[in-house]
Design a protein that fits this description.
Blueprint (H helix, E strand, L loop, with lengths): L4 E10 L9 E7 L33 E3 L1 H11 L7 E5 L9 H8 L4 E6 L11 E4 L11 E9 L13 E9 L5 H14 L3 E3 L3 H4 L4
Parallel strand pairs: 2-4, 4-5, 5-6, 6-7, 7-8, 8-9
Antiparallel strand pairs: 1-2, 1-3
């Protein structure tokens, strides 16, 4: 039986944060995560309690169960050119499902594959852009990549502990909660004091795009 992938949603938009901010991309959000069930009743006991995305189930835009071939076909149908889509796989935790089989099929249409991961699971070969967002009280196993983006502040995480990892770009991103204004001020001050870090702003929330 062919493997199926559980997808919460797939949509075409602009990347709103980090290195590729402003770049057109297909976002493919996998269902499921290893740090939180996605159910609000479990948030208080989750390893990551501040997640701001809905990754439970398969009921979002273009959500459902897909084979590698049908998922690639759906992604290509949303891209405005004939081939070579820029795809951001996210979640939840995309490393639970993004595997060599899917990557192989995507590469046949010259896809550029990016992943946004918590860094606690090994990644399959063939991913073109690796962005990790470390969470407190976890063990990071993905210690090299392209972009490291720390939601700030987090109890139990000192961003300076990550600066020696093998990442090309280091970002601090203010946590989006009731204290966002204060978090943003602290993030700006941190970057000014530690100029190897850059500020990441969730611009999609300000310009009201998904």
């Amino acid at each position: 039986m062919a493997k199926s992938y559980a997808i919460k949603e797939i949509y075409y938009t602009l990347q709103g944060e980090g290195f590729h901010s402003g770049r057109p991309a297909i976002f493919c959000r996998f269902s499921g995560c290893n740090l939180w069930s996605g159910r609000e009743e479990d948030r208080a006991t989750a390893i990551c309690q501040f997640c701001d995305t809905d990754f439970w189930g398969t009921d979002g835009e273009n959500g459902g169960k897909y084979s590698a071939e049908s998922l690639t076909e759906k992604i290509l149908s949303l891209w405005p050119q004939e081939d070579a889509p820029f795809i951001v796989f996210t979640g939840g935790e995309p490393a639970l499902q993004l595997d060599t089989e899917l990557i192989k099929v995507l590469k046949k249409c010259k896809s550029e594959i990016a992943i946004e991961t918590n860094g606690t699971l090994e990644l399959s070969e063939g991913i073109d852009w690796i962005c990790i967002s470390p969470k407190a009280n976890t063990e990071i196993v993905v210690k090299s990549g392209h972009e490291l983006k720390i939601v700030f502040p987090q109890d139990g995480i000192d961003p300076l502990d990550f600066k020696e990892m093998d990442y090309q770009h280091l970002y601090i991103q203010p946590m989006d909660n009731a204290f966002q204004k204060d978090n943003t001020i602290m993030a700006i001050d941190f970057c000014k004091a530690n100029p190897q870090f850059k500020l990441s702003v969730q611009s999609h929330k300000y310009i009201n795009i998904p």
